[in-house]
Amino acid sequence: xxxxxxxxxxxxxxxxxxxxxxxxxxxxxxxxxxxxxxxxxxxxxxxxxxxxxxxxxxxxxxxxxxxxxxxxxxxxxxxxxxxxxxxxxxxxxxxxxxxxxxxxxxxxxxxxxxxxxxxxxxxxxxxxxxxxxxx
Length: 135
Fold this sequence. Notes:
By secondary structure, the protein is mainly alpha-helical. It is built from seven helices and two strands; from the N terminus they run E-E-H-H-H-H-H-H-H. A two-stranded antiparallel sheet has the order 1-2.
């Protein structure tokens, strides 16, 4: 895999690791190069929408809490779409949280002087945060 560091040169990830191993670059320089490498995949990092609720999930959610608490495993076995829905919601939330963490990590190691990439990251991070909060 190649990394384009601020248009200066292209280098493979293995070469960067080798430079770090042989102390040709510092850890900070390594992290900065990884941040630029992460910028190459910025368009592949996107917010995932939650799945739509089926009518059975809506019916389940309309039950009072005390009734839901009394449901047996047989109910969930007979209605697997309810468990599948919540599993999917949890998976999507985890993916979005992981993507936000990646974006914040890239920004953390991006040089402050690179205002163009900082602006791109700020826009993407703010978009994620707003969508995660339901705005």
